[in-house]
Write a structure and sequence with these properties.
The chain has helices at residues 14-21, 23-26, 45-55, 69-74, 76-93, 126-139, 163-172, 190-202, 219-229, 259-262, 272-278, and strands spanning 6-9, 32-35, 59-62, 99-104, 145-149, 152-153, 176-180, 184-185, 188-189, 207-210, 217-218, 236-240. By secondary structure, the protein is an alpha/beta fold.
Length: 286
């Protein structure tokens, strides 16, 4: 990576925060610019263009998004603005430098699972549709990188971005969590996502890569793992099924095949159960 500044958008979110926290070790020659919503409104294209020209970043890592699926379903126009148009504008500004865009396993319909980078996308939600559209824009530039990831866990600045943080908040409020036994993802610690992406960027990776955990788990299995970590919360969970669900469509199995990324990075992508058992000091304790 050249020595110019690196922009990290969405630095107030989970992955963006961990990218920023690990930036000094990963990119010691670069000044890291953490962009949050308060610092720069990415939808203000004129201001973004001006700041980009003044800063002349050497890389952009674009984590910012309207990422909560219910909010996207409720306002598709806003979702398209934040997730597609903002991405297109930044990608265009960064046409001649590395640009990293974060996408989602939810671009798949979940009928098969174990999806690799060649698998056909079929988004079921507005959020997923915007990610597919943005992916196509970014991948049109051969210098750019798209990273699809899955559920990320870890401590975020707002305390509510990681799926584990959401579980904990519910249990602290005395809620019983109803979790699907038949919806599968590949959860991963955000710190591992950040480390993998920094390595991919340092090696000049371009195109499409999957970066997720090494373990396919149901929502129910994830809940049981965390319940065993936080007995002091007296966590209550109940099994549920997608067959009973009456909301917007949900993909049953969006597990990702990460062999392509694994072959390029220096460490094994962790399974959630292994990470929880080996790194208890990193689990949020409130």
């Amino acid at each position: 990576m050249s020595g110019g500044p690196i922009w990290i958008t969405g630095a107030g979110g989970l992955i963006g925060h961990h990218l920023f926290q690990t930036a000094t070790a990963a990119a010691p020659r670069n000044r890291i610019v953490a962009l949050t919503r308060d610092r720069l409104d990415l939808a203000d294209f004129q201001r973004v263009r001006q700041e980009f020209r003044e800063a002349q970043p050497s890389m952009v890592m674009h984590c910012a998004a309207l990422s909560r699926s219910p909010a996207c379903q409720a306002d598709p126009a806003l979702a398209r603005r934040q997730n597609v148009e903002v991405t297109a504008h930044l990608s265009d500004l960064a046409a001649e430098i590395p640009f990293v865009f974060f996408s989602s396993d939810l671009v798949f319909d979940g009928r098969d699972g174990n999806y690799d980078e060649h698998a056909h996308v079929n988004p079921l939600s507005v959020y997923a549709e915007t990610k597919v559209l943005a992916e196509r824009i970014v991948l049109a530039n051969p210098l750019h990188l798209v990273v699809r990831t899955s559920l990320n866990c870890g401590v975020s600045p707002t305390g509510d971005r990681g799926f584990d943080e959401q579980l904990r908040r519910g249990w602290e409020a005395g809620q019983t969590q109803r979790l699907f036994t038949d919806e599968f993802r590949c959860p991963i610690p955000a710190e591992a996502t950040a480390r993998a992406v920094w390595e991919l960027a340092a090696k000049g990776a371009t195109g499409l890569y999957h970066v997720a955990g090494a373990e396919r788990l149901s929502r129910w299995q994830i809940g049981r793992l965390y319940a065993s970590q936080w007995p002091e919360l007296k966590p209550n969970i109940e099994p549920a099924s997608l067959k009973e669900y009456r909301g917007a469509p949900r993909a049953p199995d969006t597990s990702l095949n990460c062999a392509k990324a694994q072959a390029k990075i220096s460490f094994p992508l962790p399974s959630l159960s292994e990470w929880l058992s080996c790194e208890p000091s990193r689990i949020q304790t409130g």
